[in-house]
Specification:
The chain is mostly helical. The protein has one domain. The protein has helices spanning 33-40, 79-87, 89-96, 99-113; strands spanning 53-56, 74-77. It has a two-stranded antiparallel sheet with strand order 1-2. Helix 2 (79-87) crosses helix 3. The chain is globular and about 45 Å long.
Length: 114
């Protein structure tokens, strides 16, 4: 099975990037369209139905003026649950769990399936 697995995500780390020597490096958002397209093909993290959107984490310091969280911090959601989350984040998290926990579980699943 492992021979047939396809890589979804490859992370590269530069141990001596110019930013690593800066006191306050400018935040660069990590974008990976291939990964977010794959996330859309996964079942909704809340109901298991087909996902419509890769939801980017909100409300945990990853966004900013005019920017989203890194593409790594996305969650597959169907339209109903994506709208529900954006309508009332607190109520959504009380009902389904925190976005952080859902994303952690999703990343764990993504790594497990290859």
């Amino acid at each position: 099975i492992q021979d047939k697995a396809k890589k979804v995500l490859a992370l590269k780390v530069d141990p001596e990037s110019p930013e690593s020597f800066m006191l306050r490096p400018k935040r660069r958002r990590w974008v990976n369209e291939k990964y977010t397209r794959w996330v859309k093909t996964q079942p909704c993290a809340c109901c298991g139905k087909p996902a419509d959107d890769p939801h980017h984490l909100i409300g945990h310091g990853q966004g900013g003026m005019g920017t989203k969280a890194h593409d790594l911090f996305v969650l597959p959601l169907c339209r109903k649950h994506h709208d529900e989350l954006h309508a009332d984040t607190v109520a959504f998290e009380e009902k389904y769990g925190s976005q952080l926990e859902l994303i952690f579980r999703f990343i764990d699943r993504a790594l497990a399936i290859g």
